[in-house]
Amino acid sequence: MAGLYIHIPFCRKACFYCNFHFSVNQQGLSDMLEGILLEAEAEADVWSAQEFSSLYLGGGTPSLIPPDVLSQFLDAIRSRLNFAAQGEFTLEANPDDVTKELASAWLASGINRISLGIQSFSEEELRWMNRAHTAEQSEAALNTLLDSGIHSVNVDLIYGSPLLSDRAWTDSLRRVFHSGADHLSAYALTLETETPYKKLVQQGKYPAPDEDLQARQFDILMAEAAAAGWEHYEISNLCKPGFRARHNSAYWYHLPYLGLGPSAHSYDGRRRMWNVADNKLYMEQARQGVWSRMDEVLDLPTRLNELVMTRIRLAEGLVLEEAEQLQPGFSARHNTELQAFQQRGWAVLEGGAFRLTAQGRHFADAVAAALMQVEEG
Questions:
Q1: Whole-angstrom distance, CA of residue 90 vs CA of residue 52
Q2: What are phi and psi of 301, to 5 degrees?
Q3: Which CATH architecture group holds 2-251?
């Protein structure tokens, strides 16, 4: 099984915290879709032995694509690659794009999961983030999707911003957990490179994220999820039991995935490749039929480090036997760290798996870093 990611690099507005590759000039959308189909055709033979169990339209803002164009585009993608009969087909959408008619069209085109970029239910916070939608549109979009027959709905929320109180965060979580949505992706606000937010912080015009506030709101997230009976299966991802995101899980479990579109990444089990993060250069390559991708072959130390980094974030934790297969003696080499984290109450070792506790989830990056292999010299 494999996953397919398609990057649609267009947005209406630039959210001031986002460092993904996108353009607010949508004039090239049709040409870009043609370019992506050319790339899919070029990759079809290489990936012909793979059956894709998930498709994820991300960006950018894929919900900008006119519904008839999207339907034709997805039909063309399905004609070039092999998909499982019961696949997960996700489209990222902004609340201001969602209508009853669009939701029906998405469902008819084969989309069975929507990832809704609400980010906040606060009008003031949405303006602060430079989001294109309003709090009212957030509520309306979520209700429209849940009434449309779409099989699964994920909600994206951001916590830890200077304008978000603990009470407002608790209210937002309860809205999602009791709304009928089945998945939540919750991310702490971060200072990403080359973003307006970071520049404004550096200029002293905006406050930087408060680590204590974020830690407190992460605790609220864990408590509210447990009270609602949701599964906190990855540091930033929660779901009703049985509704884990299939596509993202493929990344965390190092299954193969193909990425199409500018800046998209691919992984074939041995090598990682990524496209140029430039719309103009990507389209030139599409017209010429010559795809120039950067790539790296993942050696054993890199594969071990990525195993540690991803599995530490999962509820199942790091299975030590898997680490031993990549680095014999891993457990003995890191016995001091493994014991220390347990004594601090950050982790437990059960059934051969090293898992973070609720307290330890606050320190996932530090735990992973301590268990990674450091290149000498």
A1: 13
A2: -60, -40
A3: Alpha-Beta Barrel (3.20)
pLDDT in tens, 70-115: 999 999 999 999 999 999 999 999 999 999 999 999 999 999 999 9
Tell me which architecture the domain covering 300-371 has in CATH: Orthogonal Bundle (1.10)
Task: Tell me if 364 sits within 8 A of 357, measured CB to CB.
Answer: no
Q: What is the pLDDT of residues 331-362, one digit of tens each?
A: 999 999 999 999 999 999 999 999 999 999 99
CB atoms within 10 A of CB 130: 14
Q: How far apart are CA 123 and CA 132, in angstroms?
A: 11
For the segment 309-321, the average pLDDT, to the nearest whole number, is 98
Rg of the chain over all Cα atoms, to the nearest angstrom:
21
Q: Where do the structural domains in the chain lie, given as residue ranges?
A: 2-251, 300-371
d(CA 240, CA 170): 18
Query: Which single residue is written with the structure tokens 């599409």?
Result: 286
Query: Which residues, at least 6 apart from 217, have a Cβ–Cβ distance to it below 8 Å?
Result: 159, 160, 164, 166, 169, 188
Separation of CA 243 from chain center: 15
Q: Which residue type occupies 121?
A: F
In contact, 235 and 364? CB cutoff 8 Å: yes
Q: For the residues of 334-356, what is the DSSP string, one character each?
A: THHHHHHHHHTTSEEEETTEEEE
Are 308 and 252 contacting, i.e. CB atoms less than 8 angstroms apart?
Answer: no
For 232-258, the pLDDT digits (tens) are 999 999 999 999 999 999 999 999 999
Which pLDDT tens digit goes with each residue over 145-171? 999 989 899 999 999 999 999 999 999
Task: Find out whether 298 and 270 touch, Cβ atoms under 8 Å.
Answer: yes
Judge if pTM exceeds 0.85.
Answer: yes
Do 2-251 and 300-371 have matching folds?
no
Question: CA-based diameter of the chain, in Å?
Answer: 60
Q: How many CA atoms lie within 13 A of 169 on its CB side?
A: 25
The strands making up 353-356's β-sheet, listed across from edge to edge, are 318-319, 353-356, 347-350
